[in-house]
TrEMBL record:
Gene3D superfamilies: FAD/NAD(P)-binding domain. Coiled coil: none annotated. It comes from Klebsiella pneumoniae subsp. ozaenae. This is L-2-hydroxyglutarate oxidase. Residues 156-173 have a biased composition (Polar residues). Residues 132-149 have a biased composition (Low complexity). InterPro entries: FAD-dep_OxRdtase, FAD/NAD-bd_sf.
Length: 173
C-alpha cells in the first residue's frame, strides 16, 4: 500500500516525487515508469532551455512562474551539481515587421526584470557572423540551457534524495 502513486518518470513525475519526499519523509511513494529509467521520453528529448520569461505578459502568472522557475531551476542545478550554461539568447529581427515585434519584446523584457542588450546590425555580425539581422536585435545574456548530461546528473540527484529518505520511488515492472 502506498501513500502516493506517481505515473511517469519525466521531470514532472520525478520532481513531484522529490517534493513529496521532502514534505512527507515517511510516506510510501510509488513512481511508475514504463521505460528502463527516468526521463526517456519528452523530458529526455527536450532542448534543456531554462526559460527566462521573454514572451510572457509582465505581471501575469505565466511570467511570475517562469521567472521563479528560472531561479529555482538554477538553484536546484547548483545544489545538486548539475551543470548548466548561461549561454545567452539572441532575438533577431530580419524585417521591419519583426523590428516592431522586437521593440515590444524589448519593453516586455524590461518589465519582466530581465537583463538585456540592444544590438546594432554591426554588433550582431561581430558576435555571430552567420546571422543577418537588422539593428535592434536584442541579446539576453542571462538566458540559460542545461547541458547534454543534465538528465543523467538529475537522475542521480533525484535517486540520492530518494535514498536519503525512508522511501525509494519504485519503477513499474
Amino acid at each position: 500500500m502506498y501513500d502516493f502513486v506517481i505515473i511517469g518518470g519525466g521531470i514532472i513525475g520525478m520532481s513531484t516525487a522529490m517534493q513529496l519526499i521532502e514534505i512527507y519523509p515517511d510516506a510510501r511513494i510509488a513512481l511508475l515508469e514504463k521505460e528502463t529509467g527516468p526521463a526517456c521520453h519528452q523530458t529526455g528529448h527536450n532542448s534543456g532551455v531554462i526559460h527566462a520569461g521573454v514572451y510572457y505578459t509582465p505581471g501575469s502568472l505565466k511570467a511570475q512562474f517562469c521567472l521563479a522557475g528560472n531561479r529555482a531551476t538554477k538553484a536546484f542545478c547548483e545544489q545538486n551539481g548539475i551543470r548548466y550554461d548561461v549561454c545567452g539568447k539572441m532575438l533577431v529581427a530580419t524585417s521591419p515587421l519583426e523590428m516592431e515585434r522586437m521593440r515590444a519584446l524589448w519593453d516586455r523584457t524590461a518589465a519582466n526584470g530581465l537583463q538585456r542588450e540592444w544590438l546594432s546590425a554591426g554588433e550582431l555580425r561581430e558576435r555571430e557572423p552567420n546571422i543577418t539581422g537588422l539593428s535592434g536585435s536584442s541579446s539576453l545574456p542571462a538566458a540559460s540551457s542545461a547541458t547534454a548530461t543534465w538528465r543523467r546528473q538529475w537522475r542521480r540527484s533525484s535517486n540520492q534524495k530518494a535514498e536519503r529518505s525512508s522511501t525509494t520511488p519504485k519503477s513499474a515492472p
